[in-house]
Amino acid sequence: MRVVADRDTCIASGMCMLAAPRLFEQDEEDGRVILLTESIEPSDADAVLKAVAHCPSGALSLLGE
Ligand code: SF4
Predict the structure, then answer these.
(1) Over the stretch 1-28, which tens digit does the pLDDT of each residue have?
(2) pTM exceeding 0.85
(3) Is the distance from the beta carbon of residue 19 to the nearest atom of ligand 1 less than 6 Å?
(4) Separation of 19 CA from ligand 1 center, angstroms?
């Protein structure tokens, strides 16, 4: 499974970072998402699903499910 973050769509809510802090950070300047890794380990699957579900802007997408 891979995750993709569209920074143009991100509204800097920070929900993804709260749900999956090992996978997402917020840019210190504009607050938008920074993807730490595209490739999701099985142990992070639940966290990334939660992050995608809670993203208010639809900026996060999963590939290869
Ligand atoms: S949850 Fe969505 S809108 Fe919020 S920071 Fe993450 S990618 Fe951006």
Answers:
(1) 899 999 999 999 999 999 999 999 999 9
(2) yes
(3) no
(4) 10
